């Protein structure tokens, strides 16, 4: 009997190519070129986070990405009126709403969907009515996930950062407990009709592990791939990530066939 394993996609985040460009000024390295190379290497989509302070990706980058990409563009953004207006102008394939604080180095924690109240619900509705697939970046928390479904999100992206940090610190018992939370969250979200994505802090090994979770349909990875590109090249890093994800999916297939 053939076991059909659902496919898993790779979204490549090009934010930190823009960070490198902005460190010196000028136009290079070009994040749009990086996006095109990522697609050639096997990325299924491109993610770009336009922060309110424009610390890496800029408005012009978003417009160029929207013009040249032939794969889905995932516009990662804070849930603000300014960003919603820009998303409605650009009409990307998807908008992933994330928490954002100006002093943070990277996104810390998941979006407070419950605390966002009716204002967040209205923003999700407005984006959805424009044909934009709305994703909410959330911690593996039962109440937050239930609220995400209630307000009409199509997707949740599970924040894997805490799990990845525990792995990096060698805290195996705590990492196992956090991974169990991710598993439960993925199953809960799927049972509510949400598509499940995951991302933040993933490397080859952790991506392989989480790719073996059946409900997960997409991983979004950026910083690690840009860092690996320094040593092996961007395309080679992405191809290796695809191999790692494929190994994880193969583990899923083997476990289902057993």
From TrEMBL:
The keyword NADP does not apply. Homooctamer; tetramer of dimers. It catalyses: 3-amino-2-oxopropyl phosphate + 1-deoxy-D-xylulose 5-phosphate = pyridoxine 5'-phosphate + phosphate + 2 H2O + H(+). 3-amino-2-oxopropyl phosphate binds at residues 13, 24, 201, 222-223. 1-deoxy-D-xylulose 5-phosphate binds at residues 15-16, 51, 56, 106. The gene is pdxJ. This is Pyridoxine 5'-phosphate synthase. Pathway: Cofactor biosynthesis; pyridoxine 5'-phosphate biosynthesis; pyridoxine 5'-phosphate from D-erythrose 4-phosphate: step 5/5. The record marks 157 as: Transition state stabilizer. It is an enzyme of class 2 (transferase). Keywords: Cytoplasm, Pyridoxine biosynthesis, Transferase. The active site is at 49 (proton acceptor), 76 (proton acceptor), 200 (proton donor). Catalyzes the complicated ring closure reaction between the two acyclic compounds 1-deoxy-D-xylulose-5-phosphate (DXP) and 3-amino-2-oxopropyl phosphate (1-amino-acetone-3-phosphate or AAP) to form pyridoxine 5'-phosphate (PNP) and inorganic phosphate. Gene3D superfamilies: Aldolase class I (3.20.20.70).
């Amino acid at each position: 009997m053939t076991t059909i394993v659902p496919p898993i996609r790779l979204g490549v985040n090009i934010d930190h190519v823009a960070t490198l460009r902005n460190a010196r000024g000028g136009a290079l390295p070009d994040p749009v070129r990086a996006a095109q190379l990522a697609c050639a290497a096997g990325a299924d989509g491109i993610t770009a986070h336009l922060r309110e302070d424009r610390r890496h990706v800029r408005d012009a980058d978003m417009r160029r990405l929207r013009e040249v990409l032939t794969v889905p563009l995932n516009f990662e953004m804070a849930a603000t009126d300014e960003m919603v207006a820009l998303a409605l102008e650009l009409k990307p394939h998807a908008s992933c709403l994330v928490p954002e604080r100006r002093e943070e180095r990277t996104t810390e924690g998941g979006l407070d969907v419950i605390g966002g109240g009716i204002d967040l619900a209205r923003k999700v509705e407005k984006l959805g009515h424009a044909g934009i697939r709305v994703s909410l970046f959330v911690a593996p928390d039962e109440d937050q996930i239930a609220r995400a479904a209630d307000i009409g999100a199509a997707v949740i992206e599970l924040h894997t950062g805490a799990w990845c940090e525990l792995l990096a610190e060698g805290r195996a018992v705590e990492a196992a407990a956090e991974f169990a939370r991710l598993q439960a969250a993925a199953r809960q979200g799927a049972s509510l009709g949400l598509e499940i994505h995951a991302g933040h802090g993933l490397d080859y090994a952790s991506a392989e592990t989480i790719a073996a979770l059946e409900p997960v349909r997409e991983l979004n990875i950026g910083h690690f791939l840009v860092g690996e590109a320094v040593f092996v090249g961007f395309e080679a890093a992405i191809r290796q990530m695809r191999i790692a994800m494929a190994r994880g999916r193969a583990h899923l297939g083997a476990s289902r066939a057993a």
